[in-house]
Amino acid sequence: MTQIQATPHQNNFGARIDGLNLSKPLAPETVEIIRQLWIDHQIIYFPNQILNHCDLERFTRYFGDFGTDPYIKPVSGHTHILEIRREPDEAIAPFGASWHSDWSFQATPPSATLLHAKVIPPIGGDTLYADGIRAFAALDIGLKKEIEQLTALHSARRPYSHEGFARNSSHKRSMTITPDDNAWDVQEHPLVRTHPESGHQVLWINPVYTIGIKDIDEAQGCQLLSDLFAHALAPQFIYRHKWSANMLTMWDNRSAQHCAQGGYDGHLRILHRTTVAGDSPV
Ligand code: SIN
Question: What atom of ligand 1 comes closest to residue 258's alpha carbon?
Answer without folding.
Answer: 2
